[in-house]
Amino acid sequence: MASAAVLSGGFGLAALGFAAALSAPAAQADSTCSPGEATTPECAPPEGMPACNAFGQCGQIWCPASGMTPVAGWDLSRCHTFYFDPNSPATKPVMISGNPPGPPPPPSPPCIPLINCLPGL
């Protein structure tokens, strides 16, 4: 009975050590930067804020607490702008640092009340 208790306790300690090892990689960045703080100087993406091009491709924002794998070489204490390579397969998307290349989208048409916009909105 005593050996069963020792063996059971050993498995419990091993499980705790395994759980701690699994949770350790999640805390790789010490930064508090999040998408909501991406406009503050210490968190702002060095590549600029996300933007879209005329082809409908848009940049996105990655921050240390996002849980996504970062692009190699990124500073893991601040947010970054990226887009997905449109030529990569959907099953294995490739992240590219920065905003997508190409001309910016055309400006939106002017507001004409009751035609293309509602007053007060």
TrEMBL record:
First and last residue of the signal peptide: 1-29
Keywords: Signal
Domain of life of the organism encoding this protein: Bacteria
The protein's name in its UniProt record: Intersectin-EH binding protein Ibp1
Phylogenetic classification of the source organism: Bacteria, Bacillati, Actinomycetota, Actinomycetes, Mycobacteriales
